[in-house]
Design a protein that fits this description.
99 residues, mainly alpha, 2 domains, 5 helices, 82% helix, elongated
Length: 99
């Protein structure tokens, strides 16, 4: 008793943590083992199958329209950067920096 009182005076957070650990040690380890599979339920073949079934897969029409949008966007950006390169190159030639 005297030791715990001196510990509480020196560092009250240390005794609180020790008290929590002591309470956890009083619990049966079987209960902790039962909680682990519940948390990792998806990490099994059945859990993976159910998660795959929950996925909303895109339809073919959605996929083709999104693919077309990405391709058009990439082509436009490519044209933009080529034009910027040409303009900057011409400006450098005008001011006499380029060869």
């Amino acid at each position: 008793m005297a030791e715990t009182k001196t510990k509480e005076k020196n560092n009250p957070t240390l005794t609180k943590v020790q008290g929590k650990d002591a309470k956890k040690n009083d619990k049966k380890p079987e209960k902790e083992l039962k909680e682990v599979p519940i948390q990792l339920k998806w990490f099994s073949w059945n859990g993976i199958k159910t998660e795959i079934k929950r996925i909303r897969w895109p339809k073919f029409s959605e996929m083709t329209s999104n693919t077309a949008k990405v391709l058009v966007f990439c082509i436009l950006f490519g044209i933009f950067f080529v034009l910027c390169d040409l303009v900057i190159g011409k400006l450098l030639l005008v001011i006499g920096v380029g060869a």
